[in-house]
Amino acid sequence: MPQPTAMLLAHADGSPASAPFTPGALGSTDPFGHARRIAYLAADGMAAGVIQANGEFVIEDYPHVEMLVVHAGRVTLQDEQQALELSTGDSVVIGRGTAFQGQAEPNSLWAFCAQTQAASERNPGLTLLDPLSPVAPSTAPDAEILLSRAPQCRSHNTFADSASDLRVGIWDSTPYTRRARPHKLHELMHLIEGSVTLQTADGSDLTVATGDTVFVPKDAPCAWKSTVYVRKFYVVK
Q1: 189 partner at 20 to 30 Å CA-CA among 118, 183, 211, 216?
Q2: pLDDT tens, 49-100?
Q3: What is the DSSP code (8-state) at residue 31?
Q4: What is the pTM of this model?
Q5: End-to-end CA distance of the chain
């Protein structure tokens, strides 16, 4: 079985990224199965990749929890509570059990991270992620893996799904460098500001720039080097 590795899902401008994609659905009830390209799908239900969608859609009961980041085109989503107009860089979480309708411009592209395991607990609704959301001090990387001065880190969970322990939010940090170590969680990162160099399983560098979306599976070896302030949306489990 291949060693898990960090993979770039989408560039800021929607141009092709380096991750290997496989067309397919996340299950028999996946409403975007026809448009989905999967880069990662694990036995624990964590999945990541992109969706190339267009046209109108009506969904009565969303089968899983999913975070989307728009990389090309414009997307409209509407549930009972609100209507959201999403363009490049915008991100939303769709809760399990959400009923909504929407429309995507031709050649729209979204990066996604989803938790697909079935759960009796429903958490319906659309949660728009705010890139300017307030953040509070959070734990810095462990001292034994740091190769630089300890950074100042801040974060805020905007969305949490108790059934799967999936959390979505925003994080920022001053520059720092740390050595490679197995990633503790599955994590999708969408860089709102700054850039960072990660490390793939074969030891090569992977540069993630502002507006890019990257996925790092649990246990993937991954180093971190940032020379500027970094702010990102995250999905972790």
Answers
A1: 118
A2: 999 999 999 999 999 999 999 999 999 999 999 999 999 999 999 999 999 9
A3: T
A4: 0.97
A5: 22
